[in-house]
Amino acid sequence: MEARVPAYPGETFTGKISVIGDVLNEDTRTITVRSEVDNHGYKLKPGMFADIRIFLNQQSLALVLPL
Question: DSSP readout, 12-62?
Answer without folding.
Answer: -EEEEEEEEEEEEETTTTEEEEEEEE--GGG---TT---EEE-PPP-----
